[in-house]
Design brief:
One of its GO terms (molecular function) is hydrolase activity. The chain is α/β, with parallel strands linked by helices and about 375 residues long. It is built from ten helices and twelve strands. Helices cover about 40% and strands about 20% of the residues. Helix 1 packs antiparallel against helix 2 and helix 5 crosses helix 6.
């Protein structure tokens, strides 16, 4: 029986990916492995080990690799893979707290890493297990493939192409997790860092009925770019969603509000300008359905605890519940606020970003 055109397309893509992988491996052997082997003979063991580690990091697309998370104390880590494309299946890790079972289902947070990270490094940066164990949440960490993006970025800037495919793959994983684990399917939220933040908001706008709330930490405003050049401008705060994109999103929402939104951003972020957070908030305001009860602005609050970085909190409420919250962290660069020390894209001096997020998600019913 002849294969469908779709099957032929995936076959062609996978063959091309295999050829490219072989070509890359030959280039690595010629330009990296062989010279490195000679260097090992010439140099001291310590220096050679450092070069090897740096090369491994470059090839993996992970800036500061971490050991796979282990189950310590209550709760357990699981890992697996899902999907078949584009080009490669994706891996995931999942933390399930003790006490979650078929009769006592837990809320779930989908946590999307940024560029230069994988699930192990992101779990370490965010302290996902410790925070989720304390809060009683399931945490699902999907992992971007280096074949889909060499820097392991989620392709948020291709909303009509690969980005849409990835959003569908992520949604399929969320649905699978809800079917196979003790997850309260109506209490699923998604949060991401940088490219993961932009993809988290993309998911919320594509599948608004499936998420109780969404959040972006240091992410670009979604639907602001359709290629890498435009993405760079958007990250600098020089692009935003145009009128056609807003109109298409409004049609997709079909008269419903987008999910409640949390935005965390440092005002010293030189990679993704903080104006992306205000632009994302403005997009959510534009997407409010006609005739809906207007959101109420709450006076801004400035909060500082101990020696941690100060934050300015801006809230808009729907009735008595928070609906949109923007948290601007003073002096924070392009890094996870309150993250573990010794990792890239992590700032231990900030307030704990994951705890801030879970408080908001709980307040909105996530």
């Amino acid at each position: 029986m002849p294969r469908s055109s779709g099957a032929k397309l995936w076959s062609t893509l996978n063959k091309a990916a295999t050829r490219n992988a072989r070509r890359m491996q030959r280039a690595v052997n010629r330009n990296i492995t062989r010279p490195m082997t000679e260097a090992i003979v010439r140099n001291a063991v310590k220096q050679s080990a450092a070069v090897t580690a740096a090369t491994q990091r470059a090839l993996s697309g992970v800036v500061s690799p971490a050991e796979p998370p282990r189950s310590r104390g209550s709760g357990r880590w699981e890992e697996g893979s899902w999907g078949a494309g584009p080009l490669a299946p994706r891996r995931y890790r999942m933390f399930v707290p003790a006490g979650a079972n078929g009769r006592r289902r837990a809320p779930m947070l989908v946590l999307l890493h940024g560029c230069g990270q994988d699930t192990a490094s992101f779990a370490a940066v965010t302290r996902a297990a410790a925070v989720a164990r304390e809060a009683g949440w399931v945490v699902l960490l999907p992992e971007q493939s280096s074949q889909a993006n060499g820097q392991r970025c989620w392709n948020w800037f291709k909303p009509a192409g690969q980005g849409a495919v990835e959003a569908g793959l992520l949604m399929a994983l969320v649905e699978q997790a809800c079917r196979t684990h003790p997850v309260a399917a109506d209490r699923v939220s998604v949060l991401g860092l940088s490219a993961g933040g932009a993809m988290a908001l993309t998911l919320g706008l594509r599948y608004p009925a499936r998420f109780a709330a969404v959040g972006s930490h240091s992410g670009a405003v979604p639907w602001s770019a359709t290629n890498a050049t435009q993405a760079a401008r958007a990250m600098r705060g020089q692009r935003g969603p145009d009128a056609r994109a807003v109109h298409a999103l409004r049609l997709g929402l079909a008269g419903r509000r987008p999910p409640p939104l949390l935005l965390l951003h440092g005002d010293a972020d030189a990679m993704v300008d903080v104006s992306n957070a205000t632009a994302a908030a403005a997009l959510w305001m534009q997407l409010q359905p006609e005739g809906a009860h207007p959101l109420a602005a709450v006076p801004a609050r400035r909060i500082q605890r101990g020696m941690r970085r100060a934050v300015d909190v801006f809230d808009w409420t729907e009735g008595k519940a928070p609906y949109l919250r923007l948290v601007r962290v003073e002096g924070l660069g392009h890094a996870w606020s309150g993250g573990a020390g010794g990792h890239a894209f992590s700032d231990p001096a900030g307030p704990d970003g994951l705890k801030l997020a879970l408080r908001f998600f709980l307040a909105v019913g996530g």
